[in-house]
Amino acid sequence: MDCGSMTSHLQIEELSVGFRTLDGHRQVLQLAHLHVDHGESVGLVGESGSGKSVLALTVLRLLQCPPARITASRLALDGRDILSLSEKEIRRLRGRELAMIFQDPMSSLNPVFTVGSQFVNVIRRIRGEHHTDATERALEFIRLVGLPDPENMLTKYPHELSGGQRQRVIIALALCCDAKFVIADEPTRNVDVTVQAGILQTIARLQHELGVSLLFIANNLALVSVMCDRVAILLAGRVVESGGVNEIIEDARHPYTHMLLRAVPTPEERQQVAAKSTAGRLEPLLAGAEVAERACPYCSRCLEADGDCRDEAAPQLTSVGGTHEVACHRLATRLESRA
Amino acid sequence: MNDASMAVTAAPGALATTPLVEFKDAKLYFPVRGGILNRPRAWVKAVDGVSLKIAPGEALGLVGESGCGKTTLVNGLLQLEKLTQGSVLFDGRDLASVRGGELRHLRRQVQAVFQDPFWSLNPRWLVCDIVGEPLRVHERLSAEQRLDKVTELMEMVRIPVDALFKYPHEFSSGMRQRIAIARALALRPRLVVLDEPTSAIDVMSQHQILLMLTELKERFGLTFVLVSHDLSVVAYLASTIAVMYLGKVVEYGPAQLVFQSPAHPYTQALFAAVPDPSKKSAESLVSLGGEVPSALNPPLGCRFHTRCPRKIGRCSEELPEAVWVDENHWAACWLCHPASTSQSGRDVPANRGE
Fold it and tell me: Is the CB of B255 less than 8 angstroms away from the CB of A222?
């Protein structure tokens, strides 16, 4: 994906992140390339432990090094190399240009301060505004995320709000200092589907209204299909498939993506499932099988894997048309059988 | 897995006339106390008159938003809460009247898997002790026999046997939930209550666990009560669905029918809010406005009318009674009441006959 190499909002090339542990160095992220253009929203999908959140923390430079070790041939926000910035410079970046919507609204708001004072503190610190101006701005953003009765909302403590309201407060906090690049790390985890729908709509609306670039992290392909223009599927720290949302959903090539899609049925599929006329297949459990250390991250669970998959080094991303890229050894064989 | 114990459990259909579980107008209220005498000043009506029957071999999916009373209802079934009014029968016996050894015997037959596998497994116990605990309590087995059984259970839930001598913190949440399932199945119960079994797990392991549960259900002829707000979870497991809103069941029917033609506007809203790969933008999701009203003071008339997109005048005045919309499928909504058709000749759905 060499398109937009100069203009991308976030550009990542050859990023590798590892941690020093008692058992030696552990590699958790190995990204060949990933970019987010201005105003674009890119989804990052993967199961827990695939390195999604580590990527978010790497971009924000919130990982402590050591124990973390980050190397990248390029990790740039708006053309500026994030890794070479001093601590003071990166602090200026956070909030102003780079913001994050965290996963757990329970622990990302301070329970002993009112919503209002948390807003005012952030706005005063980042924008240097007076108390009254900051309050005005807080009200504006509370209105923007669709919370009822903004004045009253400012005087409340986080425990007085419902999960959905809290998450909206977090979104408003992330956006209130005009950050143009926002990372949303599973923003609708632990909320009901009805509330989730409202929150997703709010994020999508604000993204367009404020012209924000969004990196949307989720474990659910359906959320990403609703929110994003492009998707990258992450497994054990590697991208196994990436491309436009439609390409991935209608023409998924990696067996893992197929599995992810089956986990979130469409309404028609849901009816079939409810009628018990279709069901998925259980992954084989090859816990003891011999797998080469650098082999394909999916080979021990893949229904299509053969000996080569377990012995050879992990496959590289190869283009299957346009921006659609897949990393799978069996890709060629499957194309042959299809032809 | 001896065959004698399985014969008792695996008889779906044969017992279709007697439900395994029956809620009879179950009500669960919680007092809000205050004043000098600390008397109840008000009641939170968590479950407000639920009548349901669960046939052996059935899998009932209880669906609804948080705070609608679905967990409270199953807590009533598990006897973790006492019903304020009404009764819950297991195998024809009123659970409230069962005591001592008999209750102990019943507890063997009803097991639960709870929502959060981080809290439901003792962090200081080895996995083999956790899974073996029900066996230790209820069965007289030597340590070796118990270990054999535990090993068998671990294979059943597809966990490598080397996990036996590890602690819960060494596992991912998906694996931990499998351990909880193994523990629930250790005594070959007849009924398993699954309270949001996959909400703490990512979709990938969720899918695998659901497939596994389907397989186990068939294999041991289990009856499930599944609590979930996630419709894909319910679609995989449930054979019947009860949709709850503010302490009441608003729609009930076979899973297939409810998914094909949801009758109640609340069910429709729930379905429309679920993101799926066929939806291309956030606008295509339908979000319900507002929050669930307080169960302290539920709205008059239909409880859903404050948020209902299709409300009519009558909704805010009278509580709609349940009406049949199809065979075995009823909904409590005025829109489903065809004013012209009379309901004579059919059962009142709330006391539906099997």
Answer: no
pLDDT tens figures, A124-152: 888 888 888 888 888 888 888 888 888 88
* Amino acid A2: pLDDT: 45
Of A200, A279, A285, nearest to B211 by CB-CB distance is A279
ipTM: 0.78
Nearest CA in chain B to A203: B282
Does the beta carbon of A49 lie under 8 angstroms from any beta carbon of chain B?
yes
Q: State the smallest CA–CA distance between residue B344 and chain A in angstroms.
A: 30
CA dihedral B177, B179, B181, B182 (to 10 degrees): 170
Residue A337 pLDDT grade (very low, low, confident, very high; cuts 50, 70, 90): low
pTM, 2 dp: 0.81
Residue A303 lies in a domain: yes
CB contact under 8 A, A281 and B211: yes
Quote the domain boundaries for residue A281: 258-338
Query: Is the residue at A218 inside a domain?
Result: no
Inform me whether the C-beta atom of residue B271 falls under 8 Å from chain A C-beta atoms: yes
Per-residue confidence band for B17, with pLDDT thresholds at 50, 70 and 90: low
Residues of chain B positioned with their CB less than 8 A from the CB of A283 = 208
| Predicted local confidence at residue A74, as pLDDT | 86
- Tell me the residue ranges of DSSP E strands in B35-81: 39-54, 59-63
Burial B69-95 (b: 16+ CB within 10 A, else e): bbbbbbbbbbbebebbebbbbbbeeeb
Instruction: Give the pLDDT of residue A132.
Output: 87
- Is B268 near chain A, with CB under 8 Å? no
Instruction: Tell me what the pLDDT averaged over chain A comes to.
Output: 82
Q: How far, CA to CA in Å, does B103 sit from each of A321, B22, B136, B186, B323? A: 64, 17, 17, 18, 36
Residue A130 included in any domain:
no
Q: Is B198 on the interface with A (CB under 8 A)?
A: no
B207 touches A267 (CB < 8 A): no
Q: Which of A15, A157, A166, A149 is nearest to A82 (CA)?
A: A15
What part of A 232-291 touches B (C-beta under 8 Å)? 245-246, 249, 259-268, 270-271, 273-276, 279-283, 285, 287-288
Say yes or no for a CB contact (<8 Å) between B277 and A227. Answer: no
Residue with tokens 């939930």: B177
- Class for the domain spanning B3-7+15-277+290-351: alpha beta
Q: What pLDDT, on the 0 to 100 scale, is given for residue B345?
A: 39
* A220 part of a folded domain: no
Residues in chain B: 354
Q: How many domains does chain A have?
A: 1
Decide if pLDDT at B150 tops 90. Answer: yes
List the single residue in B172, B259, B275 with the smallest CB-CB distance to A222: B275
Domain ranges for chain B, please list them: 3-7+15-277+290-351
